[in-house]
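Need the bound structure for BES, inputs here:
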Amino acid sequence: MEIKVIAGDIAQVEADAIVVSLFEGVEEINGATASVDKALDGVIGGLIRRGEMKGKLGEVGIVHTLDKLSAGLVAVAGLGKPQDFNLDRLRQAAGEFCRSLRKLNCRKIATILHGAGSGEITLEASAEAITEGSLLGLYNFQKYKKSEYEDVEELLLVEENESELPNLEEGIRKGSVMAEAAAQARDMVNEPASYMTPSRMAGIARELSAKYNLECAVFDSGDMESMGMGALLGVARGSNESPKLIILRYRGDEEANKAVGFVGKGVTFDSGGISIKPSEGMEEMKDDMAGGAAVMMAVDAIAQLKPRVNITAVIPATENLPSGTALKPGDVLRAMNDKTVEVISTDAEGRLILADALSYAVKEGLSPLIDLATLTGACRVALGTGYSGAFSNNQELVTKVLQAAAKAGEKLWQMPLPQEYREMNKSQIADIKNVGNRYGGAITAALFLSEFVADVPWVHIDIAGTASSGKEKGYTTKGATGVGVRTLAELALSLAGDI
Ligand code: BES
Ligand code: ZN
Ligand code: ZN
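Answer from helper R.:
Posting the output first, comments after.
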């Protein structure tokens, strides 16, 4: 879909549909909505008076113009209560009105810059949010099944004041970069595991490096052997697919030799290994590389937005399968930082591969470190499917990450990292074991990871609950969400010149 800006009056624009909006609880309509209402002899006012439309967030009222306007349809987008309005609610409203209009076969949609001027929201920010919300809300994965609906071809952002158009274009540019990067992460996660193998992930990293002139290195099992990555190799042992440790480097600050590390779990299929998972729902475990995909595509966005900061992405990629060569419960592995790990469950494989990836990142001198992982079912139990969990050894850093997430509209909740729980990870025969006890599973998993970051400031984000969605809502579509991409890209923008 192409997104363009034009100067003019929305009521006169030629399109299949024009979009105006309504705040909840506001009885007197105004602005563009009022002028369109006038042209339609008060039809929108009537909808409100009769209670057919309330302006609730996500609500979309459709009115046929019966040739009173050049556009065939008017969509009235509900924006929710004015006091609750923010950029993320605008993204959500945009996702909803775009999907509703696609269902009505609209190919060309024109919209006003909803909410601009209210509170802190500038025209540029409104353009950016509408761009993100519409691109992500219209996302569908069509590789194996064609969509029921034709694609929307064009979205016009209509602004009266011509001198604002360059600002709007800037908003569209940033919004498109963010949304397209998140959509590419969705594509990677939606692919079946037999397609999205560690080697394919490495291939995608190489493509990114060629496209944006980034440094890329891909280590295979021989390299892992020489680097002492016994934990990652242990998990990979059960599979015939060769594991890859993928490194992508973006250099936005040539003068600094420091780089921030983004580490993403890349388990391309998690069967549980010998500690095999129940078969029901196991197909979901193709999502277990969502952290890796998010980290890679955050680099894609960053390479286009060009903040002055260096970022190195580290993605340990492997399958977790049972076989005659697979890791067994009770085995002891030696990670790259020389710590020994007793494997209690081969299904707690994410922390094993991250142990080596984080050790590698520390050895490379990357700082601070942010890791993203579909790590624990316990995190999904604790926070549900709306929030990711953040765990950190550094309050200042996690505060920045929470702010970046808020900016991106990706819900993130800080969880505790209590030192007294470390005891639960103690092993009889090794330095640490890979499973705690019955309770606090998301915390003991995070504490396990903390053993591999030395004293580097670090945030772990558990996205087990948020990496994929069972329902379509706002700009979230069914399947992969692309969570983390926009948070990490926002974080890189906020860290520019800061480290
Ligand atoms: N990939 C899973 C975590 C997961 C669960 C992600 C549900 C998305 C949805 C992870 O590797 C895993 O299996 N974790 C175990 C850990 C347990 C064995 C300590 C879990 O959460 O059950
Ligand atoms: Zn697992
Ligand atoms: Zn897993």
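Comments: The longest helix spans residues 165-190. The chain is about 35% helix and 20% strand.
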